[in-house]
Amino acid sequence: MSKIDELIEEYEFLEADDRYRLLIDLGKQLDEMPDALKTDATLVRGCSASVWVYPTQRDDGHLHFLADSNAAITKGIIALVLETVQDRSAAEIGKVDIAEVLEPFDLKNQLSSNRTQGIPNMIALIRQTAERFQEG
Q1: pLDDT tens digits for 35-60?
Q2: pLDDT grade, residue 81 (50/70/90)?
Q3: Nearest to 99 by CA among 76, 75, 112, 116
Q4: How far apart are CA 15 and CA 2, in angstroms?
Q5: Which terminus of the chain, N or C, has less C-beta within 10 A?
Q6: Which numeric CATH code is attached to 3-135?
Q7: CA atoms within 13 A on the CB side of 9
Q8: 17 burial level (CB within 10 Å; 0-12, 13-18, 19+)
């Protein structure tokens, strides 16, 4: 069972407050993003909180994303989004329907619209990044 499947299973059994805690804990597990990478170029547009995403490429060609936010819940949402694509090849990322994978979390109904409005922009950024790496 993949980590995302384990998270879905755990999330389904939690009450609302515990779901928030799970997201916050996920955010705390993200690799630290150096402040020098938190620039206008890495800022995700359309998020109510500040969100930065920076792609790196491992020696095996797989993409690893560094990300951060100034809001704990939003950072957890980023971690959840990244869990669907982290450390995969650009081609694999291109095949993942991130929104569909996240559907069981029902984030639109679990969180305020302010918290979820930036998710499509995060997904679009990840997709565009994978396309760029795939092209060359």
Answers
A1: 999 999 999 988 888 999 999 999 99
A2: very high
A3: 116
A4: 22
A5: C
A6: 3.90.1010.10
A7: 6
A8: exposed
For residues 33 and 60, the answer to whether their CB atoms sit within 8 Å is no
Burial class for 116, CB neighbours closer than 10 Å (0-12, 13-18, 19+): middle
Q: Which residues pair with 64 in a beta bridge?
A: 56
Q: Which phi and psi (to 5°) does residue 48 adopt?
A: -70, -35
To which H or E segment does residue 101 belong? helix 98-102
Instruction: Mention every residue, 6+ apart, whose C-beta is less than 8 A from residue 15.
Output: none
Residues 6+ apart with CB under 8 A from 104: 8, 11, 12
Structure tokens at 105: 């979390």
Calpha distance 104→90 (Å, rounded) = 24
DSSP, res 72: H
* Residue 124 main-chain phi, psi, to 5 deg: -60, -40
Please give the positions annotated as active site: 47
Give the three-state DSSP class for 38: coil
